């Protein structure tokens, strides 16, 4: 397995260093830390997903949701046996169908010196209040002893981070890793892409794909608001993407007559600036369709319209356009929370389907 560049050449890539200090808390931004998986450099020193110039241009719902930190992460290296994260969020801690650990929680993964990925479990009694959320990771061990791990700290998918601090143990090192130069996967989608309803951020399918394929992934999933508007496609076109994933069908069941035109127009906008692959993703479906035929038909209509647009793009000479079907995603009856949003099992199914398709496309 390949080792990330940050592990191969830390002297070149580490942007900030606090080493051998007393036990203390640090604000990552005060040490020059960069947030990973943002699509615009002007978002530095924030946990936002769209730049200020988008305000008043994109629909207000999209703008509001862009303040949520879905898909964003802080990347750092440490040998601390204890790591704590304290932060405050602006919105409700949980939703009726998504627990506080998914809506407002964080997730910590360690990459060892051999490139292996290790999940870190926080202390069971995490603090969740409107004034402060705190996660404590205790008794962390390192293999080989004395080495540093590269940690990826996934931020809340469905909340806005107002402030965040990281604490390390006395005598430990904390080194923040800057954003790399690889072109990102750019995902435009719905609440499912944003992370609903994973039990924790690391189980959201875009974060699984990012972690397992080791590619940066810009998550522009907007709950209820991924509706293929041209203003959003214009913003997408500003990102120099490795591949675009368009996964908006779950928000288009009420607008089937607009799917064909908006897909054609959106692809044309992207093609003005980029010739990279574009992946169109079907609606993953409703797993209760056998007991609710009307609902089942609604997603099938959206998929037929998306397929019609896909065939038109191919017929008109567009190349590097790809397609992921409902059947390839393959959600089963146990894969959803309330019939619309995947649980952790459903997220795993979608991640596997997208990963397989990306491996095929990107070779």
As an assembly, this protein is single chain
- Amino- and carboxy-terminal Cα gap: 16 Å
- Poorly predicted regions are 1-21
**Computed Rg:** 20 Å
In percent, how helical is the residue content? 25-40%
Overview of the structural elements:
With 363 residues, this protein is an alpha+beta fold. 28% of the residues lie in helices and 21% in strands. It has 11 helices and 16 strands. The strands form 3 sheets. The chain has a 6-stranded antiparallel β-sheet with strand order 1-11-3-9-5-6, with no helix packed on it. It has a 5-stranded antiparallel β-sheet with strand order 2-10-4-8-7, with no helix packed on it. Strands 13-12-14-15-16 form a 5-stranded parallel β-sheet, sandwiched between helices. Strand 15, helix 9 and strand 16 form a beta-alpha-beta unit. The two termini are 16 Å apart.
Secondary-structure topology with pairs:
Layout: H1 5-8, H2 10-13, E1 16-19, E2 24-26, H3 60-65, E3 73-78, E4 83-89, H4 100-103, E5 107-111, E6 117-120, E7 127-128, E8 133-137, E9 149-154, E10 161-168, E11 173-176, E12 185-189, H5 191-194, H6 205-213, E13 217-221, H7 230-236, E14 243-247, H8 256-271, E15 278-281, H9 293-315, E16 321-324, H10 326-329, H11 344-362
Helix pairs in contact: 6-11, 7-8, 8-9
Outline:
By secondary structure, this protein is α+β, with helices and mostly antiparallel strands. Helix content is 28%, strand content 21%. α6 (205-213) crosses α11 (344-362), α7 (230-236) runs parallel beside α8 and α8 (256-271) runs parallel beside α9.
